[in-house]
Write a structure and sequence with these properties.
- The chain crosses the membrane at residues 24-43, 55-75, 95-112, 156-177.
- InterPro entries: ECF_S_folate_fam, ECF_trnsprt_substrate-spec.
- GO terms for molecular function: transmembrane transporter activity.
- The protein is mainly alpha-helical and 188 residues long.
- It has a single domain (8-43, 52-183), classed as Arp2/3 complex 21 kDa subunit ARPC3 (Orthogonal Bundle).
- Helices cover 74% and strands 2% of the residues.
- The protein has helices at residues 8-16, 21-38, 54-85, 94-111, 118-144, 148-183; strands spanning 43-44, 50-51.
- A two-stranded antiparallel sheet has the order 1-2.
- A hairpin with a 5-residue loop joins strand 1 and strand 2 (50-51).
- Helix 2 crosses helix 3 (54-85) and helix 4 (94-111) runs antiparallel to helix 5.
- The longest helix has 36 residues, at 148-183.
- It is globular and about 45 Å long.
- It starts with 7 loop residues before the first helix and ends in a 5-residue tail after the last helix.
Length: 188
């Protein structure tokens, strides 16, 4: 475990995950899991906010695989999901791939080779939600011509409503999976 991601050893270990067949296989399974979770109906909350499930698989992949393999996973997952599902009727836009990459990267910085605490999960989810609001509104402004602040304000409210539920779900998932992943020697 590393106290922070700002050491050479952390990045050397993360880069070596690209050579680990077990981690590559795990990342591939997480891609399949993301697509399966996308088929599960979302849970509606208040004000149009809803809980979707893909973030769970992305965060677990980031936790196990780290920032280097995690970013490769994010690109593959986003592209495969788009082309297999048809993108929900929307055209392909690389900005959304960038958003997925950055989200997995942020999760990796908080979770990979780290002790998982609720605070760490909450802050990681908060930062990814802020990034999703900011970039999502930018991509919508580019694609649809809607004013950035209009899209961002509505999205920010929805993401704020979802945040505690997402953080609790993610922390619960991590604490449940930890013994299994340790036994499988996928995490320490």
């Amino acid at each position: 475990m590393y106290p922070h991601p700002f050491s050479v050893g952390y990045w050397r270990t993360a880069a070596n995950e690209l050579k680990d067949v077990r981690k590559l296989t795990f990342a591939a399974l997480c891609i399949a899991l993301c697509m399966a979770l996308a088929a599960i109906p979302s849970v509606p909350l208040w004000g149009g906010a809803k809980i979707t499930w893909g973030f769970l698989a992305r965060a677990v992949c980031a936790w196990v695989c780290g920032p280097v393999l995690g970013v490769v996973f994010a690109v593959a997952e986003d592209l495969l999901s788009f082309f297999i599902t048809g993108g929900g009727g929307y055209p392909f836009f690389p900005g959304y791939t960038l958003t997925t990459m950055l989200g997995v990267f942020v999760y990796s910085l908080f979770f990979y080779k780290s002790k998982i605490t609720f605070g760490r999960v909450f802050w990681a989810k908060l930062l990814t939600n802020i990034q999703n609001v900011t970039l999502g509104a930018l991509w919508m402004a580019i694609l649809s011509g809607k004013a950035w602040y209009v899209t961002a304000s509505g999205s920010a409210i929805k993401n704020l409503i979802c945040l505690p539920f997402q953080a609790i779900l993610l922390y619960t998932l991590f604490t449940t999976l930890r013994p299994v992943l340790v036994k499988a020697r996928l995490i320490e």
